[in-house]
Amino acid sequence: MSEKDLYRPNVAMIIVSNNYPQKKEIFLAHRNDLADVWQFPQGGIDDGEEVHEALFRELEEEIGTDEVEVVAEYPEWITYDFPHKIAKTMKPFIGQQQRYFLVKLKKSAKINIETEYPEFSDYKFVSVDEVLTLSASFKKEVYKSVIKYFKDEGLL
Question: Taking the CA atoms of the chain, what radius of gyration do you get in angstroms?
């Protein structure tokens, strides 16, 4: 297995409310399997699946709607390593290689985290600054990089 193959291909979404760009409220969800971990929705890319297909499928699976408008895409893949406890359950992967999207909820979107296989127990919209105080430590550097990029682009 090459180094690249050790990272699970994944999509991740920074979701802003339908009040964007007037209000820059970012969706964060509380994981139901890790104490005090809030995160952006994300999920694996299936074999043969295009990145945009995975984006909309994961939105539907995790928050119950794919009614979003893609505002922007982070220009490159970004990786992080799993903490040891999580890595044991994700073998053969040691981390994730992610493609990030900034998406805006359409006015018609109805969030429902009580999906067929719920991953989240709660969600809220927070300020850009609050994201980093609530997110998991092992994802903080990725979140910082992605948020900085979208801020520098004038999007957050």
Answer: 15
The full length of the chain comes to 156
pLDDT at site 3: 65
Helices (H), 2-50: none
Rounded to whole angstroms, the Cα distance separating 136 from 115 reads 23
Residue 35 tokens read as 């104490």
Q: What is the pLDDT of residue 76?
A: 97
Tokens of 144: 């910082």
| pLDDT, mean of each 10-residue run, the chain (156 residues) | 82 98 97 87 97 98 98 97 89 95 98 95 96 90 97 98
Count of beta carbons in the 10 Å neighbourhood of residue 146 = 22
Beta strands in 47-119 (DSSP E): 68-73, 78-81, 95-105
* Cα 89 from chain centroid (whole Å): 20
Give the separation between CA 26 and CA 55, rounded to whole angstroms: 17
Q: Count of CB atoms within 10 A of residue 85's CB?
A: 8
34: tokens are: 């890790």
For residues 74 and 149, what is the distance between their CA atoms, to the nearest angstrom?
Answer: 8
